[in-house]
Design a protein that fits this description.
By secondary structure, the protein is α+β, with helices and mostly antiparallel strands. It has five helices and eight strands; from the N terminus they run H-H-E-H-H-E-E-E-E-E-H-E-E. The protein has two domains: 64 residues, no CATH class; 89 residues, no CATH class.
Length: 170
């Protein structure tokens, strides 16, 4: 759905909205509220495993932990999780280590108490101040239900059938 169509929703008289438009609005609202903030994407740790073996030969467990990082949840351009950030069994950060990557600069890996990798911070991006969220923070939409108003098809509402309009707050 285009930006223009979304803007049109907030400038529309919902009581007189066409059923097809209302259906598209409902789909848009469902996608807005029920799409997870963090999307899991595949991650190939091969290059990082080799770097860890070269730069930390005295700590082979770091390369082994990196080899297990096959999925990533990007929080921003400067940070990515290797463990689901919404998981209830998530472990707190207890330490970390640095790797120098020739392509991406300095990488700071957060680790838990068992040595598992929680996430990576791309220091070159963060220190330049270029860190941006991967997905914009959702705008809160407040929905008001007004009983007793006419429906889209002109028939009177029965009982507590709602009429919807929204206020957008940032």
């Amino acid at each position: 759905m285009s930006k223009e169509e979304r803007i049109a929703y907030f400038q529309t008289d919902y009581a007189n909205m066409a059923p097809a438009t209302r259906a598209r609005l409902e789909v848009d609202l469902m996608r807005h509220y029920f799409t997870p903030r963090y999307q899991c994407v595949p991650f190939d740790p091969t290059e990082l495993v080799e770097l860890a073996k070269q730069q930390w030969p005295q700590h082979p467990q770091r390369a082994e932990a990196l080899a297990r990082c096959t999925e990533q949840w990007r929080e921003s351009t400067g940070y990515g999780y290797f463990q689901d950030p919404k998981a209830r069994d998530g472990k707190p950060c207890k330490g970390g280590f640095l790797l120098h990557c020739p392509r991406q600069g300095e990488l700071l890996f957060d680790t838990d108490k068992d040595g598992g990798i929680i996430g990576v911070e791309y220091l070159a991006i963060v220190l330049r101040g270029e860190e941006e969220e991967v997905e914009p923070v959702p705008v809160m939409r407040i929905v008001h239900w007004i009983p007793g108003q006419a429906r889209d098809d002109g028939r009177p509402r029965l009982g507590r059938e709602p009429r919807m309009h929204t206020d957008e707050h940032r």
